[in-house]
Design brief:
214 residues, mainly alpha, three-stranded antiparallel sheet, 6 strands
C-alpha cells in the first residue's frame, strides 16, 4: 500500500507566497482515495470520491476503490496496527505511514472485490451500518483465513454473491440506498444463511483471538 503526505518537489509552507504545488500532486486528491489518519482508537479510514483536499495532518492513498477501505477498517487490520504501532493514552495508537504501508491487502478475485465494494457502499449510503460492517468484517476474515472459515462451513462470499450484494457496487444515490435497505431486511433476518454464518463466525478461535475475546 502506498500513500501521499507532506511536501513534494515544488512545495513550500502554505503561507509562503511562492507556494506552487505540482499539478500532478494536486491531481491525486481529485481521484477516488482513502484518507489515512495518524491517531486512532479504532479503524477510521475514510473513502472519498468527491475530490476533497486534506491538510498535512492526514495522508491519502489515491486511485483506489471501496475494496481497500473495507479491508482497512476490518478487525484484522486493527489487530495488526495494535501490534505494530505506538500505544498512547486512553486506548489510542499512533499510526505512522510506514505502519500503514506494511498492511497486507488480500489479492481478491473480481467477484470477491465486488461483494466487498457492494457492502462498503451500503455503509456509505448509511443503510443498516452496524450489520453491514459486521458483514464486511466477516468477508475480510474469509479473505485472510479461508481454510478456517470453510472448515466451519462459513462461505460468506458464496452466500453474498447468491444474494446479489455485489450488484450494490454499481448503484448510486437513492437506488443504492433502497437496494441496500431491501437486501438488509433479507440477509440479516435470523433465518438467512448470511445471518447464521455471521453468528457462527464469532465462535472461531482465530476470530476470537483477533477481536480480543480469548
Amino acid at each position: 500500500m502506498s500513500s501521499r503526505s507532506g511536501k513534494g518537489e515544488g512545495q513550500h509552507h502554505w503561507l509562503e507566497l511562492d507556494n506552487n504545488p505540482k499539478e500532478s500532486y494536486l491531481a491525486e486528491f481529485e481521484q477516488p482515495k482513502v484518507i489515512l489518519g495518524r491517531f486512532m482508537d479504532k479503524p477510521t479510514y475514510a473513502y472519498d470520491d468527491s475530490g476533497y483536499y486534506t491538510n498535512n495532518a492526514l495522508s491519502i492513498v489515491a486511485g483506489v476503490d471501496e475494496y481497500l477501505v473495507g479491508v482497512l477498517n476490518s478487525s484484522v487490520t486493527w489487530w495488526y496496527l495494535k501490534a505494530t504501532c505506538t500505544d498512547l493514552q486512553n486506548g489510542f495508537i499512533q499510526v505512522h505511514n510506514n505502519n500503514q504501508e506494511a498492511i497486507t491487502i488480500p489479492d481478491a478475485k473480481a467477484k470477491q472485490r465486488s461483494v466487498v465494494k457492494g457492502a462498503v457502499k451500503a455503509v456509505l449510503a448509511e443503510q443498516d451500518i452496524t450489520r453491514y460492517e459486521q458483514l464486511i468484517n466477516g468477508l475480510v476474515f474469509e479473505l485472510f483465513f479461508p481454510d478456517e472459515l470453510h472448515a466451519a462451513n462459513i462461505r460468506l462470499f458464496d452466500a453474498c454473491e447468491q444474494a446479489g450484494i455485489g450488484q450494490l457496487a454499481a448503484l448510486q444515490g437513492d437506488a443504492l440506498a433502497q437496494a441496500a435497505a431491501q437486501l438488509a431486511a433479507t440477509i440479516f433476518a435470523n433465518n438467512h444463511p448470511i445471518y447464521a454464518m455471521l453468528f457462527d463466525l464469532q465462535a472461531l478461535e482465530v476470530v476470537r483471538i483477533i477481536e480480543g475475546r480469548e
